[in-house]
Amino acid sequence: xxxxxxxxxxxxxxxxxxxxxxxxxxxxxxxxxxxxxxxxxxxxxxxxxxxxxxxxxxxxxxxxxxxxxxxxxxxxxxxxxxxxxxxxxxxxxxxxxxxxxxxxxxxxxxxxxxxxxxxxxxxxxxxxxxxxxxxxxxxxxxxxxxxxxxxxxxxxxxxxxxxxxxxxxxxxxx
Length: 174
Prior knowledge:
28% helix; 26% strand; Signal recognition particle alu RNA binding heterodimer, srp9/1; alpha+beta
């Protein structure tokens, strides 16, 4: 039997490896992603930088293209990239860390299944940091089928600063 006899067999990707950003704002973008992701440079020259924050060889590549013009929200394309944090504690601690670097979210929202903070990089690309609100596998998929989710698939906005303060007060028993 040939390897291509059944072209409909399951052969899906095993994980998301990386994404690449083209920018005319090269140095600022490299610094922002290093700070935002606590990433290390694994390669860098005047044309491209590869960053990682884990065992993967690179998670973000930033390509220097001085000839590019900025996009606008009216352009079609990817809306945002999301990263999951291990816990709500990590989301809040990371919020405080980024705030100290003057990297602030423009939007906080409880989507129901996740609690999220959205940031913009120097080019305006949207990056989400999220944490799952439920630990049970499959609960989010079930929630997607409810009338509650259908009525409000976006969620309820919150102020990230108030959220962090309230979380810290609860953790301290205040």
